[in-house]
Amino acid sequence: MSKLKRIPFQTPGESTDILAQVVLPFNKSLEISLKSIKSRFLRNMVTVTSLVLAVSFLAYVLIGSDISNGIYNSGQAYLVKILDKAGYQPDGSAKERWIVILSLLVCTVGIINAQLMAVTERFREIGTMKCLGALDSFVLRLFILEASMQGVVGSVLGAVFGAIIAILLAMTSYGWNAIKYLPIADVGLSILYSIGVGFALSLIGVLYPALIAARMRPIEAMRVEE
């Protein structure tokens, strides 16, 4: 059940009390967010897929660098020669860093665009909720919850796929040495970093659309034609 509190409302010559909805329980917000994701599954899949691709590329670059560093530090001369021929740089190339940054920016723009479209499609839904007493914070919470769930799923899948691809490609060049000299701790940190970046991107991407939805006046939302 929602929590209610009395807000005194003063009018000329009289004083009355108005019941206003303050906040819904978190589990109810989570339930509404899950239903919204299911009802717009295909559109949400586009957002998640873009996040998966961006995080996969980030994880692939980071873990590929970790594998190269592990092989380089192994001291095996023939493996070091293979790395040198491949243009290995201990700190990574500037080109790779710029490609990663650009891919993450494109992903963020895609998420913002998808969330803005979601807000447009839900004008009447948002207006109805506000007419029923939903506060700005409740609407904002719904969008952030949805983005968080998408961010977790997309980031975890992307990090796992990127790690698998990086390891498989390394094995084609170095054989089982890629596994033998795999720096587990560094790879684990790279996976966690990739997941964190992906989750942050999903929240950054939804922030502006969520603020637009939260600040929308009920009458403006309800007058939008289907």
UniProtKB/TrEMBL annotation:
Gene Ontology terms: cellular component: plasma membrane
Transmembrane domains' residue ranges: 41-63, 98-120, 151-171, 191-214
UniProt key word Cell membrane: yes
InterPro entries in alphabetical order: ABC3_permease_C, Macrolide_Exporter_MacB
Keyword NADP found: no
Membrane topology: Multi-pass membrane protein
Keywords: Cell membrane, Membrane, Transmembrane, Transmembrane helix
UniProt subcellular location: Cell membrane
Major localisation: membrane
One Gene Ontology term of the molecular function aspect: transmembrane transporter activity
ABC3 transporter permease C-terminal domain boundaries: 99-217
PANTHER family named among the record's database cross-references: ABC TRANSPORTER PERMEASE YTRF, MEMBRANE COMPONENT OF TRANSPORTER-RELATED
Family: Belongs to the ABC-4 integral membrane protein family.
Name recorded for this polypeptide: FtsX-like permease family protein
